[in-house]
Amino acid sequence: MRPRDRWMLAGGRWSQGTGDETFTVTDPATGEPLGVVAASSAADVDTAVAAARGAAPGWAATPAAERGAALHAAARAVEERMDELAALVTAEMGKPTGDALGGVEAGIGTLRQYAELGPLHGGRSLQGGRDAADFMVREPWGVVAAITPWNDPVAIACGLVGAAVATGNAVVHKPSERTPHTGAMLAELVAGCLPDGVLNMVTGGGAVGEALAGHAGADVVAHVGSTRAGRRIAELAARTGARTLLENGGADPLIVDAGVDPSWAAGQAALGCFANAGQICTSVERIYVHEAVAEPFLDALAARARNLRTGPGASPSTELGPLVDERHRTRVHQQVEKALADGARALAGARLPEGPGCFYPATVLAGCADHMAIMAEETFGPVAPVRTVAGFEQALEAANRSHYGLAATVLTRDMAHAQAAWRTLEAGTVKINAVFGGAPGGAATPRRASGGGFGYGPELLDEMTAVKVVHVQAAP
């Protein structure tokens, strides 16, 4: 069991670490402090990586079925404490309780998925001479540094850690400094089902992340988070030769075609823009609506924004919780104010509310243009910036005019348009007539500034392993 004042896990032992810096975590709904956390030092990162390096050979040699059984045990351990874990998510980043539970359930499912797929993951034989054997085998890289975000801290961590552990790697995990209590509890539950040193954890902000990403002992650096952080991680990993898996930010477009029901389309847009207060990697960040349905669509979207029930995530009636902290709220509001100054019109929201907490209203902006930062950059807040277009082709061109390429959504009744959309849109994921959803096991590679490499699905097991070609021939 982890002592409450210890925030570093290395080699199966929780400790206070050697760092002398602390930071305070606050509840974004009330501003009240949740706890004071000790940040890890560079020496602590060395210790955690060394522990992972020491555990890696033994874990790689463990039969895959045993590794799978350990992950199944970890999934059960998380499931037994899921209510507590979800409550920590809500307290630390404000996510409504139902959504927080959904994230934990997704994490449990991911652990089970990799527990089953890990033992089945292998190489292939090659067609060589009859006097020889040729085959390709997959082997763990060794040490995986996993740096995960605050917006879905359990599901994403379970994905990266689960895939790495299932394939025989040891892990050093750094959860976001905004959700350290969640990260520590998850590490306690999962590491308790694994041999000492297979899962280690360090805590802190950007300096700790840089020390881990640039560590010579890390073979793979897997990161989900902001574009700025992802670029810095890529730069640091390039110096050591570590493999990188990056899911950075996005400015995901939503196209609303002529002929769709504007009320239904507004519901999809509201879900895409306002779920989790817009703090989802694949949130809708910009909307292109056909002029034929623009007016009723905007009216319906603004009405939905005004009618969302805002409140603390712990309240059962809350539909729109707070943003994660005051710094992030300030950034979101600055983008909105800049858009208004550049000619956008606010149909809902766009004003800082009075009172405690980091709440921000669901905001709808009409008259937006592609050059505005609100359309070009990631906002990561409950903001729906809308540009009216004259035709579907114009919308496709505008949607592709971005340095991001994470995901995109198209709402249309025209199957020819749907076909053209998924063929044309330069994004890792294209969704037709649903802003969220999809079959289990889907995996895509982000494009351009949004990152690279598979971060989900069975393909993530490939990313966590190196391929070796073996040729065996009898001596003469």
From TrEMBL:
Its EC number is 1.2.1.16, 1.2.1.20, 1.2.1.79. InterPro entries: Ald_DH/histidinol_DH, Ald_DH_C, Ald_DH_N, Aldehyde_DH_dom. It holds the Pfam family Aldedh. Coiled coil: none annotated. Residues 14-470 form the Aldehyde dehydrogenase domain. GO terms for molecular function: glutarate-semialdehyde dehydrogenase (NADP+) activity; succinate-semialdehyde dehydrogenase (NADP+) activity. The keyword Zinc does not apply. It is an enzyme of class 1 (oxidoreductase). SUPFAM superfamilies: ALDH-like. Belongs to the aldehyde dehydrogenase family. This is Succinate-semialdehyde dehydrogenase/glutarate-semialdehyde dehydrogenase.
